[in-house]
Amino acid sequence: MKHAVVFGILAVLCLAVGSLAAPAAASSPPEPVCGPCSSAFEERAEQQGVGVNVTHSTAEIRVDENGSATWIVTNRLGEANASLLAATPERLRQIARGAAVDNGLAADSAGSVTVQSATVDNETVRVRFTDPDAASRHAGVLVVDYFHAIGTWGAVFNADRVSLTGPEGTVIANDPRSIVDDEHATDSELPTVDEGTLTWQRTAAAEDPAELYDEFYIAFAEPETGSTRVTAALTLASLPIWLSNVRDIVLPGAVVYGLVSIGLAAVTRWTVETPTDAGRFAAAVAGAGVLGALAAAVGLLPTTLLGVGVLYAEIGLAGLVRPDWLRSVRGSLAVGLAALLAVGGILLGLGAIDPRFADLAPTVAHTMAIHLPLAVAPAFGVGVLGEALMSRSTAAAVAGAVAAFVVAGGAFVPFDSRPFFLILFVLPFVVALLGLLVFPLSVLAASRAEPDGTAT
User: What is the domain extent for residue 443?
Assistant: First the structure.
């Protein structure tokens, strides 16, 4: 029986995917926060043929109203090292320039970084340079993205003290400390906030430099600025990142899913040509959904499969108890959307008592949007049953499926960060898996819509 074979293959694939664990990958060491500080300065000096030993470093970053930042870096050296660099000021400037451009938070603006001075005084090297692209203004709020652009590998505080100060008359309008503060955070990783200055200070007890893996913006605004305006500014700052993710990930995926949908339309039509017991198939879909949802709820399957199980259970139950609801595109769409609301309600309830479900997505609305391609699958199945495969109704069904994919993809991709590039290699697999999950639901509705008497 076609339905049984197809559903059996799908069950095996779903269990295989559910058992997959995220592979451990070797990661690169975190990037230094300050290019001309500490060991980063030493390495650059060594490349210039000068051996130095930095005993203490500080970095003071002052952000201007126009979004530029002036860095003032100090490196305390031994007497012999200081004398050598003082005697070769041009070499010192080359070291300072190379260190500021190659490493640190300002490295993204390497082509625009300007070293204003590099001097030696009292065994201390002082480097002053300007980064013209440290911050941007949104809704009247100055948003610094230095710590939002640390990337996959994180950042290491390679200076004994790092401070970031906004323009005169402004204060830090968001709460970056709360983002960093968790049960694993050390005192060296937690910044202190003093109105318009954010400071990381290495503690005496810290054996290793603090490392930071949390991405966040720092917002400077006038003291009376409201939280809604600050939130809007941070959202606007992230919008180009999200649009880039949609362009680079979601839209290519939508093209692939469109081709998959055309194939699904053909296979769905082929599958329902063979008379079968649609009631038993609906019961199998509902049963698989109930078992999958329960397994995800108790931890036997990943929690991400809970929504899939609920959708299967709800749509399968509708096909079993009220098959007439699935005999039109409008009715099938209503069933799918009602099941989607059930997913939101169940996850909202479970999220209140179990953080595993509360953390699945930023909001319940995100979770519902991510499941939209499955919710429209019954309507897709009915829509492709035109007189010919390349009919207007099939084209509309494929277009609707692709639109649902775009909505789901837009909710799935990160809003304020770039995902790891390997997601592009996984994307075809994800699209294929989605097609497999959509297939039984579309076949179920298509079987119930058949007018030959076997689908009642």
Answer: 235-449
What digits encode the pLDDT tens for the residues 266-291? 988 888 877 667 788 889 999 999 99
Is 403 found in the same domain as 264?
yes
191 shares its domain with 320? no
Mean pLDDT of the chain: 82
Q: Does pLDDT of 27 surpass 70?
A: no
Q: Give the range among 188-197, 247-256, 298-307 with minimum mean pLDDT.
A: 188-197
φ, ψ at 207 (rounded to 5°): -80, -35
Q: Are 218 and 164 in contact (CB under 8 A)?
A: yes
Instruction: Note the pLDDT of residue 20.
Output: 39
Q: Is residue 7 part of a domain?
A: no
Euclidean distance between CA atoms 306 and 347, whole angstroms = 8
Residue 78: left if φ>0, alpha if ψ -120 to 50, beta else—which one? beta
Q: How many domains does the chain have?
A: 2
Q: Is the pLDDT of residue 210 over 80?
A: no
On whether residue 157 sits in a domain, the answer given is yes
Integer angstrom CA distances of residue 305 from 309, 312, 372:
6, 11, 14
In whole angstroms, give the CA distance from residue 36 to residue 127.
Answer: 8
pLDDT at 131 over 80: yes
Q: Are 89 and 96 in contact (CB under 8 A)?
A: no
Q: Evaluate the CA torsion angle 70, 76, 79, 80 in order and state its sign.
A: negative
Residue 24's identity, in one-letter code, is A
Taking residue 2's Cβ as centre, other Cβ atoms within 10 Å add up to 15
Strands 114-121, 69-77: pairing kind: unpaired
Q: Are residues 154 and 252 both part of a single domain?
A: no
CB atoms near residue 421 (< 10 Å): 9
pTM exceeds 0.70, yes or no? yes
Helix (H, G, I), strand (E, B) or coil at 144: strand
Q: Is residue 37 part of a domain?
A: yes
Q: Is residue 93 part of a domain?
A: yes
Alpha helices in 299-421 (DSSP H): 306-321, 329-353, 355-358, 364-370, 372-375, 377-383, 392-412
Length of the chain: 456
Alpha-helix residue ranges (DSSP H) falling in 138-250? 176-180, 227-245
Dihedral of alpha carbons 320, 322, 326, 331, sign: negative
